[in-house]
Amino acid sequence: MGNILVEIKDLHKSFGEEEVLKGVDLDVERGEVVCIMGPSGAGKSTFLRCINRLEEPDSGTIKIDGEPITGDNVDLNKMRTEIGMVFQQFNLFPHMNALSNITLALKKVKNMSKAEADKKGLENLEKVGLKYKAESKPDQLSGGQKQRVAMARALAMDPKLMLFDEPTSALDPELIEEVVKVMLDLAEMGMTMIAVTHEISFAKGGSDRVCLLDQGNMLEQAPTEKFFNDPEHDRTREFLSMVLD
Amino acid sequence: MEAFAHNFLNINVLIRTHGFLITGLFMTLRLIGFSLILAMAWGLFLSVVRNVHLPGLNTFIVFYVDTLRSLPILVLLMLIYYALPFVGIQVPAFTAAVLALSLNGGAYYAEIFRAGIEAIHRGQTEAARTLGLNYIQTMRHVILPQAIRVVLPPLTTNTLEFIKATAAASVVALPDILRQASQAMNSTFNPTPLTGALVLYLLICLPLVQLIRRFENN
Fold this sequence. Notes:
The complex is a heterodimer of chains A (245) and B (218). Chain A has helices at residues 44-51, 76-81, 98-108, 114-127, 143-155, 173-188, 200-206, 224-229, 234-244; strands at residues 4-15, 18-29, 33-37, 59-64, 67-68, 83-86, 161-165, 192-196, 209-214, 217-223. Chain A is α/β, with parallel strands linked by helices. Chain B is mainly α and 218 residues long. Chain B has a single domain (33-187), classed as Orthogonal Bundle (MetI-like fold), CATH 1.10.3720. Helix content of chain B is 82%, strand content 0%. Chain B has helices at residues 2-8, 11-50, 55-70, 73-83, 93-119, 122-130, 135-150, 152-165, 177-188, 192-217. The mean pLDDT of chain B is 92. The interface between A and B is medium-sized, with 25 and 18 residues.
């Protein structure tokens, strides 16, 4: 078990005829931040969604903290409380204010009292700089604020691992920075993170390792510095030349 | 004109028979109360179960919903009331009416709730499940509160139709508004109690119609 938190071996996933993941491996250490990059349609989101089984992998194994989470005998709800996820479209619950978005799972899943949940919810809103928006409904928040509330909601569950599925892709350019800043803060605090992102500023500034997923294969995995400056594969160079322009 | 007033707007007859009508009103309200709650709960249950997408079960639910929506409520009610005793099940008129209305209404409500559930973006379910909420909690706290808001207009329209359909219960001699009014008409040889029944139905249904109009305007 040691220092490895996430252990993914030979992950396969097809949608109909199309094989989206063709045997992907990835190990992530505790406290490590891994960015997954790649062209659209490469299987990045599918890969990430397999890690908390929003998508059911066809074969392969995933272990979190040494515990297999693939197979039939896994308590999915319990497993998911240990893995936070942030979506491209935020997916806040529009009928609840920011605080209630956070406290719902604390009360219903973690069985906290309302007072405990509110306290924890406000603490987490403060972490993302939005305590003053606790009473606001999602439609009263900007895109960046919505994403920060979504992050607070995931963080409040005290996950061992955070998954980010293109968290800045739906944001106007001027709102990206505030979200990236929270992600960088999290990385600094030692949160283990796997982020699918096109956001170079986060990949360069916050991640320990970057992977290139291309046509369902993990083509390149390298420390961030090496990935951007001296990648092994031509395909990676080609990809980087496109996104860095 | 005088003949019309004598037959349909006869105050003396109305005063003499108002007790009948009031009894009928309470029976109709009781019938609405019981069957509406059951129909909605049954419809909600069917739609939530259907959303799990279990193949066999879904085929059954679709079959049920389609069949029940194709049956006139009167036929269903008479079948329950007159046919069940032949298989050894005696059903009182009130129970038969509640059963028929709930089975039929449940099919309509199931379709409405299903439309609402399907209108909610999949990301909502995913976000809730990712937080560790189970299916029932996700439905109860995240999906249904939004889904019901979406389908409030058709829900209200259907409820209006449902309430009017309760008048069918008079065919199995349940002393509801319509049955009591026709009894009163027969005993006074004057149809004014029917006018009374009309007014009572308007009193129950008009507020709902107003509510629907308000939805349409928004």
